[in-house]
Amino acid sequence: MLKLLCFSLFVYSASGYFTLPGKCPENVDVPNDFKLADFYGKWYQAYHYSSDGQMRNNCSQLTLDTKPSGIYLNQSRVDRGLFHRYSIAKINIPTRIEDAANMNIKFTFNDAPRRLKVRIYPFRVLATNYNYYATVYTCQYSPLINKHYIYVWILSRNPILNDVSLELAVKPLSKIGLTLKDIVKDDISNCSPKYYDDFENKPTTFNYPVPI
Length: 212
Hints:
Strand order of the largest sheet: 2-3-4-5-6-7-8-9
CATH topology: Lipocalin
Strand content: 35-45%
Structural class: mainly beta
CATH superfamily: Calycin beta-barrel core domain
Number of strands: 11
Radius of gyration: 17 Å
Number of domains: 1
Order of helices and strands: HEHEEEEEEEEHEE
Largest sheet: 8 strands, antiparallel, barrel
Number of helices: 3
C-alpha cells in the first residue's frame, strides 16, 4: 500500500512537470558545423522558456570548462534572491563531427538510489555565433504518462542581449512551435545573494530521470 501511495505521488508530481502531450519534437535541426572549442567559457541566460511555466531562479549562468577527467558544464544561479547555487554535469561529446551540437550532459548524484545515480539528458545547441548569442534546447519524454517537457536557454556572452542577436537566437525555435512571445526575459536585478552554498545542488531544469 505504501509503495502504491509513493508511486501515485511520484506520477502526480511528474505530471505537473511534463505538461506537453506526446513525444519530444522530431524535426529539431542543429548546425552540422558546430565548434565546441568556440563555445567554451561563460554564458548568461538572457531569456528562457520552460514548458511547465515555472521560474525558480534568476541570474543563471552556464560555463563550459575542461578538467583532467573531461569537459564539464557548470549551471550556477540565484535562488529567490538569497542563495547562490550550482550544478555540474559532464558533457558527453558525440563521436561524429557533424553531430557536435547534439550533446548530452551527465549528472551524477552519489546519494541517490543506484538506478538514479547517473542521469543523462539532451543538450542541443540550435544556433550560435559564439561571440554574442546561443540557443540551447532540451526535451525530456515520460512514456509513463506520454508527455514531454521542454526547456530553452537563450544565452548571451554579456548580461544584456542585443536586439539583433535576440532575433537570430529565436529563429530556430519555430521548429518546436515557439516565438518571441513565448520566451521570458531573465531577471538580473538581484544577482548578489546573501548566502553561497559550497556544495552541488540538484538542477531545477532537470527535475526527473529519463525515462519515467
